[in-house]
């Protein structure tokens, strides 16, 4: 069940919208000011719905406090001038809705943001021995150390890790790399790239990416 922190000092709006959000199945925690909101953020939330003109400060203070955190912010404000909209988005808000707002539209926006967040979080981290690959961020780690790969090396390693245990012929690998971005890779170049990947992931003995002589390659067991 998604948790929403709703920061709004207008009690009429707060009560009505909190009720509507609860009816949609969300768990809502309501705060009226910056201090209370920053304290509440010690707990986990899936989304922050934020007014800007608060009784003890600006909602921008909350935006700044959340920079670097993966919590979507939706600003809900009567300040509809371009300068405030731009500032809100630059400080990390994923949406800026002006008052007066249409309830069903706001609820639809919130639902879409949360669905995209859940989809992003559901991306599986791939593992191959001591190697971890995060497809959502295109990052590869050897233990706690990040491995620097070229774009083609990354795509090749990703293909191996997505097809662990399967025999991949050289033709299949070359066809896959060609299909991605129409970049021509020769048979000899493929051997060079696989050698580089093995060196970078400390697999010089070919234990993670095995050579099946006369056939191709297999990642994992």
List the helices and strands and how they pair.
Elements: E1 3-7, H1 11-23, E2 27-31, H2 34-40, E3 47-50, E4 53-54, E5 57-58, H3 59-65, E6 73-77, H4 82-90, E7 95-98, H5 103-121, E8 126-128, E9 131-134, E10 139-142, E11 145-147, H6 151-162, E12 167-169, H7 170-181, H8 187-200, E13 209-212, E14 216-219
Parallel strand pairs: 1-2, 1-3, 3-6, 6-7
Antiparallel strand pairs: 4-5, 8-9, 9-10, 10-11, 12-14, 13-14
Helix pairs in contact: 6-8
Top keywords for this entry?
2 domains, elongated, alpha/beta, four-stranded antiparallel beta sheet, five-stranded parallel beta sheet, Arc Repressor Mutant, subunit A, Rossmann fold, 221 residues
Explain this structure to me?
There is one protein chain. With 221 residues, the chain is of the alpha/beta class. The protein folds into 2 domains: 119 residues, 3-Layer(aba) Sandwich (Rossmann fold); 94 residues, Arc Repressor Mutant, subunit A (Orthogonal Bundle), CATH 1.10.10.10. Helices cover 42% and strands 24% of the residues. The protein contains 8 helices and 14 strands. Helix 6 packs across helix 8. The longest helix has 19 residues.
Uncertain runs with pLDDT below 50, 5 residues or more?
none
How would you name the CATH homologous superfamily of the largest domain?
Response regulator
Sheet having the most strands = 5 strands, parallel
Question: Total number of β-strand segments?
Answer: 14
Question: Taking Cα atoms only, what radius of gyration do you get, to the nearest Å?
Answer: 24 Å
CATH architecture of the largest domain: 3-Layer(aba) Sandwich
The CATH topology of the largest domain: Rossmann fold
Which outline best applies?
Answer: elongated
Percent helix range: 40-55%
What is the spatial order of strands in the main beta sheet?
A: 2-1-3-6-7
Structural class: alpha/beta
Q: How many helical stretches?
A: 8
State the domain count: 2
Average per-residue pLDDT, rounded, comes to 90
Amino-to-carboxy terminus distance? 38 Å
Please state the oligomeric state of the protein chains shown. single chain
Strand content: 15-25%
* The CATH top-level class label of the largest domain: Alpha Beta
Which series of helices and strands comes N to C?
EHEHEEEHEHEHEEEEHEHHEE
